[in-house]
Amino acid sequence: MKKLFRLFYTNLFLTNRLFGAVAACVVLFLLSFFFPWLGIVPDIAFYALLALLIADLFILYRVTDGVFAKRLAPERLSNSDENELSIYIENRYGFSVNIGIIDEIPEQFQKRDVWFTTTLAPGERKQINYMLRPTRRGEYEFGFIRVFVRSALGLVSKRYNFEQAETLPVYPSFLQMRKYELMAISNRLTEIGIKKIRRIGHSMEFEQVKSYVPGDDYRTINWKATARRGDLMVNSYTDEKSQHVYCIIDKSRAMRMPFEGLSLLDYAINASLVLSNVALLKEDKAGLITVGEKIGSIVPADKNYAQLNKIMEVLYKEKTRYLETNMEALYVTTRRVLKQRSLVVFFTNYESLPALQRQLPFLRRIAKFHLLLVVFFENTELKNLSEQPAKDVEGIYIKTIAEKFAYDKKLMVKELASYGIQSILTAPQNLTINTVNRYLEIKAKQKI
């Protein structure tokens, strides 16, 4: 009995309408002292309110399971993307009710205003959709779904608690990966900024002999087949396949810098996942290496069906470190793991020219055996500062320093190019498009 009573009052909430009605009764009682002609009006109002309150309690509590709610969530969430979740709600009362719903979302979002309101007719069912955008990989714990029900009287509200604690993993941006995958399959990459590269020459990967059509390169005419058929025949070539593409991700403290809620490491992880997927669609072999003060995870290059899942599982757990990158260990690992010439895409960040020069000897050694592409980031905040007009001496000083740092980034690109190392200097939000662009350009020019 004590437990039932505790459940009764812990799930009972008084509404503003009830407080307003009580305040009106108090005012009537006060006025009755000054205006005796009010008589028993305050008593009638009070007992009427009491009767309505009892009736409201009765109709809400006479049904133990008046509503049902359930959270509909995907098996995993995509980092940095808008993920759709839903709440299914069903009215089991015999009358219309006003519903308020609180979904206890994970603490990582730091949101306490996830509140939904709706009205349900008798037996009606609804699905309420909302979006969440996680900015960190890892496990996110969801709590209860709490539903507050009010009748048409609206004097009290009954709370229903639906225990649906669940943990959802947040993986690197697989939604972005699927978007690029669909574009690549349908040859529509140009629609999202992937530029078309003019092919220089042709690949030596033979595909078939076909009839000549205007526009074919006359240098590919197969004279023996032409003599046999009595019609012009040409050799058709296709892109070279099974080339190795390795993404190397720097996990050092330089990658902890935040941008729009995500660290640079997260941007690099999302871009690596998309690039690996596009490489596999192009029938190349994709691999992965992570490095901090020591070598982290290694996924040897392959092109089987499960390769992308292996890469995703590894990237899901990666975190930034607090020490400098061990470039010597990285060089030794590339010599040991990469058995043939490969495209090596190194995601890192340099904020000063000396930081690049410390790593340059090892980058040059890697570039001797592989096609090295160094990807690092623009400091967009400094770029914005350098473009703003200076209004005083302090503004001139800040603008000068910002321009110096921006100029140093351009010097880094020239420094790498002087040693035959390709590079991409990009804003974080353009990282994926610029990286895939460069990969397609390298494939088109047959540089691997």
UniProtKB/TrEMBL annotation:
The chain crosses the membrane at residues 12-38, 44-61. The keyword Membrane applies. Keywords: Membrane, Transmembrane, Transmembrane helix. Residues 208-351 form the DUF58 domain. InterPro entries: DUF58 (IPR002881). This is Uncharacterized conserved protein, DUF58 family, contains vWF domain. It comes from Mucilaginibacter gossypiicola.
